[in-house]
Design goal:
The chain is mainly α. The chain has one domain (2-103). Helix content is 86%, strand content 0%. Helix 1 (2-22) runs antiparallel to helix 2 (28-62) and helix 2 runs antiparallel to helix 3 (66-75). It starts with a helix and ends with a helix.
């Protein structure tokens, strides 16, 4: 989920918003920016809510402390940092539950 949300956020912020607001009104580029911010913005919003729920469920199951859980949730709101947050959460789960994961 972090990768999907992160990629959509990057496209939205780094492509859609500049095209919508930095190009001339009525141009093809401006219309593409309008489409990206409208449709991908809605998709990102829904998927971000799913990301939040999944991150909280993972945090409860993996017994993350509240500070780390909040950090992971906040990192999901900043372009490019959701990938870092996912990596940190994955590493913590692997180091804590490595033996259980190996036995399947």
């Amino acid at each position: 989920m972090a990768y999907v949300v992160g990629v959509l956020l990057i496209v939205l912020i780094c492509v859609g918003v500049p095209l919508k607001y930095l190009t001339r009104e009525g141009t093809d580029a401006q219309q593409v920016g309008e489409w990206i911010t409208t449709h991908l913005g809605v998709a990102h919003g829904w998927l971000y809510m799913i990301f939040l729920v999944m991150a909280v469920l993972l945090a409860r199951r993996a017994r993350f402390d509240i500070g780390f859980t909040v950090l992971v949730l906040v990192l999901g709101t900043v372009p490019f940092l959701s990938f870092y947050g996912e990596r940190r959460a994955t590493a913590r789960v692997r180091e804590t539950y490595d033996a259980e994961l190996a036995t399947g």
